[in-house]
Amino acid sequence: MDERQKSLILNSSLLYPPSQVKLSYGTAGFRADASVLQSTVYRVGILAALRSLKTQSAIGLMITASHNQVSHNGIKVADPSGGMLTQDWEPFADAIANASTPQDLVQLIDEFVKRENIPFDGVKSPEILLGRDTRPSGESLLEAAKQGIHCFVGALSHDMGILTTPQLHWMVRSRNRGLKATELDYFELLSSSFRCLIDLIPNASKLSDTNDKLVVDGANGVGAHKLELLKKKLNGFDIEVRNSGKGVLNEGVGADYVQKEKVVPQGFGSQDIGVRCASLDGDADRLVYFSLPSEDSGKIDLVDGDKILSLFAIFVKDQLSILNEERDENTKDNYQPCLGVVQTAYANGASTDYLKGLGLEVVFTPTGVKYLHEKAAEYDIGIYFEANGHGTILFSERFLSWLEQKCNGLYSKGSEQQKAAFRLLAVSKLINQAVGDALSGLLLVEAILGNMGWSIHRWKELYHDLPSKQLKVKVADRTAVVTANAETVVVRPPGIQEAINADVAKHSRGRSFIRPSGTEDVIRVYAEASTQEAADDLANSVAKLVDRFLGYGGSG
Ligand SMILES: CC(=O)N[C@H]1[C@@H](OP(=O)(O)O)O[C@H](CO)[C@@H](O)[C@@H]1O
Ligand SMILES: [Mg+2]
User: Fold this and answer.
1) Mind telling me which InterPro entries this protein's record contains (predicted)?
2) What distance in Å separates the CA atoms of residue 229 and residue 84, rounded to the nearest whole number?
3) From CA 88, how far away is CA 341, in angstroms rounded?
4) What is the full DSSP assignment across 128-190?
5) Active site residues
């Protein structure tokens, strides 16, 4: 880095980090009250430019705090693949976000540039795509990010406007692959692959009794608006969008609220009993479905990420079985695509049993898409979902070129095999390969329900969730909790895991774990058991343990 570059960094008015706030890149980027984020976002702008120079590719910056309250905001980096920032760079992100003086900041950057051998030869300038959600603080934070990026001579920043998080990730991925990468291209790809799947619905399914209308809770966020735009391209497909911005973002609405509280979101009521409903979160990277049971209890029948995962897994597995029925020696080959499913400890135990019962390989990672995505990418077809509705299906290049070969003339026209191959190819286009995407996920759910001739009620009955409960506990220092084995065991503070085990043992089908949240300053408690009372009781007693070991008055 030359002196000019250093002085550009030093000259920013945004240099000083908030005092007494320790920032961490966390599960999904930096998040905090928007009022303290200017300097962090400026610094992440610098990081993004460096990442672009290092990879010689376009990088994405998304300004969002997803499902968190509207006064919060955050920033995350999309790597050249469209996925999350490589975990190797997270310590650097933490270090620069917390550097307390301008000189410390410049020194950290200088050392990192040398260590990583980041080229400053001017051959390629940094290129960053910027997106933000609908939060009012987004606009000024975007300017802060730009200031960071433009510390580098010749840097290019493209403001893509208000987007869903998955749209931005998709754009980065497409751009770096030399593909069409505008919002219009995104809508075009989603709608054309959706129509293709609808055209391939077997005649028998068309006759069945699926309730046609879908009502979507847009969380008063960006997803609602984008879904309205997408809808126009879906040939009259009947979607009604509610909570599209008049109310407060994520307040009593949205996928996080619906999944965690299991209650009817605002804007829904007795007129919706029995109707197929879905909720997006504030930046539209999460999707859950639900329906209102006949009695007016305020409760919902939730169809969460685990069940979306199960639906996708059944469909993909069915299509693969059709391909496997190949009898013709000319088109048969020895390649057996490997299908894998990835979950976290939050997955309902009943879903894991169900998926294993289908003969599928199920593996677990810690919470956070960055872990799930990485694991799923190891398979020819890797399906991952968090229970909260964030997930996607990843297809390997090898599998896709095998599939394309199969589609291109190897099968007799109109054969079941050819249709199955076309369906899988359409799924690979419809479902966002960069990151979990509520809009593309929603269209895939709709297409699969149509193909199977299933109503939401048939889908819900795949298996019965074990009753579960989630709680949050405020503690003095959440980093005091250290976990292992995909967050199922607490290794620190000593003694707490044994105490949790003792509580779990008192409950039939009991399971409970704790972990520090990576997006909020809390310890999360999860419990499940054979009845709701038992799950509530287990969660409460584990929360008390957390308080005893780690609370403000605790010894931990
Ligand atoms: C229990 C839960 O829902 N945790 C969420 C939440 O992370 P925490 O680290 O638990 O705060 O936000 C993440 C980002 O959206 C998401 O990946 C994750 O699943
Ligand atoms: Mg989100």
Assistant:
1) A-D-PHexomutase_a/b/a-I, A-D-PHexomutase_a/b/a-I/II/III, A-D-PHexomutase_C, A-D-PHexomutase_C_sf, AMG1_II, AMG1_III, PAGM
2) 26
3) 25
4) EEEEE-S-TTHHHHHHHHHHHHTTSTT-EEEEEEE--HHHHHHHHHHHHTTS--SHHHHHHHH
5) 66
CA pair distance 453, 463, nearest whole angstrom: 18
- Tell me the pLDDT tens digit for each residue of 310-345: 999 999 999 999 998 866 666 667 788 999 999 999
**What residues contact residue 111 under an 8 Å CB cut-off, 6+ apart?**
none
Residue 56's pLDDT is 97
Q: Is 525 in the pocket of ligand 1 (CB under 6 A)?
A: no
Residues 167 and 225: their CA atoms lie apart, in Å, by 13
Q: Kindly state the tokens that stand for 358.
A: 């289908």
CB 12 within 8 A of CB 151: yes
Closest CA to 39 of 85, 128, 102: 102
Q: Contact, 47 vs 93, CB < 8 A? A: yes
Q: Is 390 in the pocket of ligand 1 (CB under 6 A)?
A: yes
Q: How much is the average pLDDT of 78-101?
A: 95
pLDDT tens for residues 48-62? Answer: 999 999 999 999 999
* Range with lowest mean pLDDT among 26-40, 213-227, 446-460: 26-40
- The binding site for substrate consists of 386-388, 515-519, 524
The atom of ligand 1 lying closest to the CA of 518 is 9
Residue 343 to residue 168: CA distance in whole angstroms? 24
Strands, DSSP E only, in 257-378?
276-280, 287-291, 301-303, 339-343, 361-364
Which residue's alpha carbon is at the smallest distance from atom 18 of ligand 1?
368
Contact predicate 36/18, CB 8 Å: yes
d(CA 107, CA 112): 8
Q: Which residues contact 450 (CB under 8 A, 6 or more apart)?
A: 197, 198, 201, 205, 210
Question: Among candidates 66, 167, 71, 87, which has minimal Cα distance to 440?
Answer: 167
Q: Is the CB of 518 under 6 A from ligand 1?
A: yes
Dihedral angle over CA of 37, 39, 45, 51, nearest 10: -100
How remote is the CA of residue 1 from the centroid of ligand 1, in Å?
A: 37
Residue 74 CA to residue 88 CA, distance in Å, equals 20
Computed over every residue of the chain, the mean pLDDT equals 93
Give the closest ligand to the alpha carbon of residue 283: 2
Mind listing the pLDDT tens digit for each residue in 475-491? 999 999 999 999 999 99
Order of all β-strands in the sheet with 156-162: 30-33, 72-78, 58-63, 127-132, 156-162
